[in-house]
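Form 7-S
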Amino acid sequence: MTDTATRADWLSIVILALVWGSAFMFMSVALEGYGPITVATARTTLAALVLLSIMPMVGQKLPGKDPVLWGYIVVTGLLTTAIPFVLLSWGLQYVPSSFGGLAMSTIPLMVLVLAHVWGDERIFARRAAGVAIGFAGALILIGPGLFELGQSTAPLAQLACLAAAFCYSVSSILTRRCPPVEPLTLAAVPLAIGSIVLIPLMLWFEGVPTWQGLRPGGAILMLGLMQTAAMNLLRIQVIRSAGSVFMTLVNYQVPIWAMIYGTLLLGEDLPWRFYLALVLILCGLALGQWRALKGLLRGN
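Output:
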């Protein structure tokens, strides 16, 4: 953490969790009127336009001609926008929105494993136990779907959501290794890369989108302008003020809010295994990140 977290930082963490936790609900609503690629494309493009327009206002420019930096930016753009947005949008056609939030809670656990494999951080006994407990929760989350592959679309949709989480995890490791670049630039340019990739795919597979009414159309606007653009700006502010470790507190809240939104606002009837999976994943996450979590709660 760069500085002691302020009250504004703690409030920002709560806001981020509340808003990001609702993203899966809004994706499910947007899918009522639009195809999955259109939902992913609209979300990415709207956010890219907002953040790119802000860059010159704060004196930031596009990165130079460093091929290594651009390599990181292009791959990051694919792994944080184009690929996972499509995977999530497609998957949420067949599984409850709450499943998406629960799948995203496995990201920090995946990051621990990937960081160990790539030599960034070592997994010691407590972290290994946390990862094992967390992934046991992920297996329970998928549940009967493991035995229904090939019989219905739901198991593939579940795997698509987990694959999206894996994309975010790989991107997290690459972001650590990325050459120095302004945070706003690293948020805006990958979104633009994702948009460039997604727009032709949308036009080819789903055609030019038209307004489908306030409910799905409003959900898309919320996804692009609030969930992706505005919250990325807030995320950057929190990281600059309190540090990236402090940001991990969001991971504990997003799946909880995703389940609350799905149950109360969308009327999703969640199986008991979702709640058991949530407990195991959060316990595994807390155990794996215990040292950092303890330091945050103590304010040092």
